[in-house]
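One thing: mind reviewing this one?
=====
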Amino acid sequence: MDFDKVIALLRRGWVLIIAGAALGVAGGSLLALLTPPTYEASTDVYVSVTGATNSSELAQGGNAAEQRVQSFANLATKERVLRPVIDRLGLDVPSSELARHVSAQTPIDSVIVTITVTDPSAERAASIANAIGASLAHVVTEELEEPTPNGASPFRLETVQPATAPGRPASPRLSVNVTGGFVVGLLVGLALAAMRAALDTRLDGRESVERAAGVSALGEIAFDRTVRDRPLIVHDDPRNPRSEAFRRIRTNLQFIQVDSKRRSFVITSSVPSEGKSTTAANLAVSLAENDLSVVLVDGDLRRPKVAELMGIEGSAGITDVLIGRMELVDAVQPWGKQGLAVLPAGQIPPNPTELVASAAMQAVLSDLEERYDIVLIDAPPLLPVADAAVLSHLSGGAILVAAVGRTTKKQLEIARSALQAAGTKAVGCVLTMVKSTAAAAYIHEYRYSALQERRAAPPRKRPRPGRPDLRNG
């Protein structure tokens, strides 16, 4: 996982990460408050060998003490040592229970046994530790290790550091619990964020969309909550950053298939509600602004939206042309002051797939391609129906619209496969509903490209008045 993916994971999962850390801190604090305090008291017992008269015997005695000290430490938790302690202090616990609160350790290459006792009472913990040290010395020197002929044991156990009552509990430690809870909660939050990211197959950016679509992105359109009120942002607010984004797409579109004579494109998506119709309408307006003759065709004969978006009458349109009820010249409506025309869908037919796949549709598209510089066709989504794939086969290719954060990788891959199965392909893709933070990096590029494009463009011709003459060309 590279640095960019880590940043993306933190950005998308920050709520889970913060929530996990907060719950960890709360859990650690609650545990510290609910856990009864316990105290630890320790005593150190020194083990040595008696009877050494010279340096050689002293060295041998030291080695013997080191060899036996671990065994003496193990004795500290045995009943033979603990039973006298229970009787002496009057403890009302069995030796097995007391042993669970006693630990005895000895450092490597050391002859000191450290006995530690944990108890809810600080004074009792110190008393038990000192009593165990004394009992261990008695058991070793008086019972287990046979005395020498002069009546002395070869080993000597002496307390060098008696236990004292601790002033603060060993547990719970609020700072330790809070820190531990924070770390554990943070790790859990990160794990949940990573798991959600792994299970979430929604497209999250330009790279993932291009990889799933198999084509380069023509541009990115930022998410705008007011899109329903102002769908034609290029016409309503030309200086808006989203308008500049559509002009950027316009510029990139003109470099697609420069060697091909076919300049017709189907605007489609994998599933509904990805902004394909809005994209098609704004792209048509921006193309017309560049002194191109453009026709926007509503090829969605199931849920047509172009007429509503463009604010024109849509009761008659391409369906009437396909069935021979109306001439193409009468169905096409000019729009605006530039060379933009709109061909609405007309009445919704009972057999839309048959109509879009008919020879009549092919003839209409061929006629439009001859008479206009650019033909844009707003088509239905690819996954529910086959209309868009058929229209793409009859045109110069498809432009896939993908909503970031909504469309899944699988959906876009299936849409790509549907185009391939129809013998056509996508020529580019457009990202919609991009978060403003992600799209902000492109705003300057959009404005710069649009400025350069306007400077490099030749003087604009005066718009042709009236309806285009489709009969005489």
